[in-house]
Amino acid sequence: MAAKTILVTGPNGFVGARIMDALSGAVASPSLREADGESVKRLMDTVQPDLIIHTAAMSDIGCCAKDPEGSYRANVTLPVLLAGCGVKTVIFSTDQVYSGCREEGPYREDTVCPANLYAEHKIEMEKRTLDINPDTVLLRATWMYDMPRYGSPNRGNFLVSMLREKEITLSFAQRRAVTYVREVAALISRAAELPGGIYNYGSENDLTMEETALWLKETLALPIEIRDAGPRHNLWMDCSKLREHGICFHSTIEGLKTCIEDYSL
Ligand SMILES: NC(=O)c1ccc[n+]([C@@H]2O[C@H](COP(=O)([O-])OP(=O)(O)OC[C@H]3O[C@@H](n4cnc5c(N)ncnc54)[C@H](OP(=O)(O)O)[C@@H]3O)[C@@H](O)[C@H]2O)c1
Hints:
Blueprint: E1 6-9, H1 14-22, E2 27-28, H2 37-47, E3 51-54, H3 61-66, H4 68-83, E4 88-94, H5 117-132, E5 137-141, E6 143-145, H6 158-164, E7 167-170, E8 178-180, H7 181-186, H8 188-191, E9 197-201, H9 209-219, E10 225-228, H10 240-244, H11 252-262
Parallel strand pairs: 1-2, 1-3, 3-4, 4-5, 5-9, 6-8, 7-10
Helix pairs in contact: 4-5
The structure holds NADP nicotinamide-adenine-dinucleotide phosphate.
NADP nicotinamide-adenine-dinucleotide phosphate (NAP) binds near residues 59, 78 and 144.
């Protein structure tokens, strides 16, 4: 990757900031909130990237539901514009695409059923970016966590809530993974070498959210009370397609152990 010019969108966001840390020399995109075809073309002419890593998005499910047009612009129109630039593009998608699947899981890439607008838009984005450029790499990410990063805002995440809150409400029976965002960033150069297509991209977790939270509570002797939110749909991903391409994440528990060690928690 050394000689490549890499453009990272959303460089001050939760994932983008960590990707900027992981890829020295990457070019930080300006905000693309108001971007249109013309401004995207000007950006490409100026930067002339060999690779685009697109993290900018409207990533909050509730915000997308309240502002469907804004969500469509951010989560479909913008990535389609970028994928149409004729440059290899890596785009983040989400495990929410499985939020309405009838099966228990774990889910492989071809079983999708969105239960919210954010996920609907991400699925449309995946299809349209692949149609426009079959070399596009779509990464379906899980809920990610990290400790706060100096100089940039942290977003609500599982680890920070477990460390800071007096109580946390989770669906005890829900199966989903949480992933250490620094691992997501560390593996991004490898992800950029994947053939075009859709990949579940994150830790795998055979434990329920109750078991995961209890493990963390006991490991760090946290005083937190864990409450059951009642049943919620699984978001349980099978990442074997990614593993077949040689990209292996730690499991959720191993990832949490790494983070605990990194920050001496
Ligand atoms: N965080 C997670 O746990 C998680 C889980 C699954 C999937 N993902 C996906 O991973 C990617 C990165 O997530 P993230 O947590 O890093 O996102 P984020 O921090 O919420 O947002 C990243 C950047 O997107 C830009 N942005 C916000 N609203 C926008 C809009 N309406 N139009 C265009 N750009 C906008 C902002 O940059 P500017 O201020 O510079 O405009 C922001 O810094 C997203 O595609 C998200 O859907 C995240």
